[in-house]
Design brief:
The complex is a heterodimer of chains A (108) and B (119).
Chain A (H helix, E strand, L loop, with lengths): L3 E4 L2 E4 L5 E11 L4 E6 L6 E5 L3 E2 L7 E14 L9 E6 L6 E2 L3 E5 L1
Parallel strand pairs in A: 2-10
Antiparallel strand pairs in A: 1-3, 3-7, 4-5, 4-8, 5-6, 8-9, 8-10
Chain B lengths: L2 E5 L3 E2 L5 E8 L8 E8 L6 E7 L4 E3 L7 E6 L4 E6 L8 E9 L3 E5 L3 E5 L2
Parallel strand pairs in B: 2-11
Antiparallel strand pairs in B: 1-3, 3-8, 4-5, 4-9, 5-6, 7-8, 9-10, 9-11
The chains are: A mainly beta (108), B mainly beta (119).
Chain lengths: 108, 119
C-alpha cells in the first residue's frame, strides 16, 4: 500500500499569496497516477488535478501540480478567498487507492 | 449535468449491516468510460476509499474492508449500492458515492450522507 504524507498539516496565508502544498509517497510512484482534490467546508471533495499535472475541467490555471518519484507539489499561484479549504492528494496506480491526510489552507 | 445522490438509513445498530444506494442522474451508469465508487470520511478526518464497481458488475475493494463490503450495480435503475456488514462505532462517518474515470480518478461526487452506528 502506498502511504501519502502531506505537509504542512495547516498552512496560514493571505489572499494574493502563493501556496505550496506537499505530498510525499512512501515509495517511488508514477506521476501519472497522482491526483489532487479540494474540499471546502460542508462540501464533497472536488477534483483539481490528475496525472500529477493535468487540471480537471473548469479548474482555474492558478492551480498547478508537479513532481515525480516520491515528492509531489500542488501550487496555487495567487490565493483567492474561495481557495481556503482542505486539500488531499490521491494515488491510484495500485490497489488500494489511497489519500493523504490533508493540508488545511487557512486565512492568515 | 451528472448528479449523484446517496440514500439510506442515517442510523445503524452495532453488528448490523449498513446499506446505502447511490442514484445517478444526468448520465448513464452503463457508460464504458467509468467506474463508480464509494469513499468515506470520518468527521474532521481524511478520505478512505471503500471500493469501486464497473457497470458489468466487476468490483475491487479496499483490502482493509474487503471482508465486510459488497458493492453492487443495478443498471435498470441507474444505481449502485454499498453494503457494509458487522458495523461498529468506527464505521460512523460520512459516506460519498462518486464517478471514477480511468478507473480511479473521482471526478464527480455526491453530497454525502452521514451514517451513525449506535444502539
Amino acid at each position: 500500500e502506498i502511504v501519502l504524507t502531506q505537509s504542512p498539516g495547516t498552512l496560514s496565508l493571505s489572499p494574493g499569496e502563493r501556496a505550496t502544498l506537499s505530498c510525499r509517497a512512501s515509495q517511488s510512484v508514477s506521476s501519472s497516477y497522482l491526483a489532487w482534490y479540494q474540499q471546502r467546508p460542508g462540501q464533497a471533495p472536488r477534483l483539481l488535478n490528475n496525472a500529477a499535472s493535468s487540471r480537471a475541467t473548469g479548474i482555474p490555471d492558478r492551480f498547478s501540480g508537479s513532481g515525480s518519484g516520491t515528492d509531489f507539489t500542488l501550487t496555487i499561484s495567487r490565493l483567492e478567498p474561495e481557495d481556503f479549504a482542505v486539500y488531499y492528494c490521491q494515488y491510484y496506480g495500485s490497489s488500494p487507492i489511497t489519500f493523504g491526510q490533508g493540508t488545511r489552507l487557512e486565512i492568515k | 449535468q451528472l448528479q449523484l445522490q446517496e440514500s439510506g438509513p442515517g442510523l445503524v445498530k452495532p453488528s448490523e449491516t449498513l446499506s446505502l444506494t447511490c442514484t445517478v442522474s444526468g448520465g448513464s451508469i452503463s457508460s464504458s468510460s467509468y467506474y463508480w465508487g464509494w469513499i468515506r470520511q470520518p468527521p474532521g478526518k481524511g478520505l478512505e476509499w471503500i471500493g469501486s464497481i464497473y457497470y458489468s458488475g466487476s468490483t475491487y475493494y479496499n483490502p482493509s474492508l474487503k471482508n465486510r463490503v459488497t458493492i453492487s450495480v443495478d443498471t435498470s435503475k441507474n444505481q449502485f449500492s454499498l453494503k457494509l456488514s458487522s458495523v461498529t462505532a468506527a464505521d460512523t462517518t460520512m459516506y460519498y458515492c462518486a464517478r471514477a474515470h480511468t478507473g480511479s480518478i473521482f471526478d464527480s461526487w455526491g453530497q454525502g450522507t452521514l451514517v451513525t452506528v449506535s444502539s
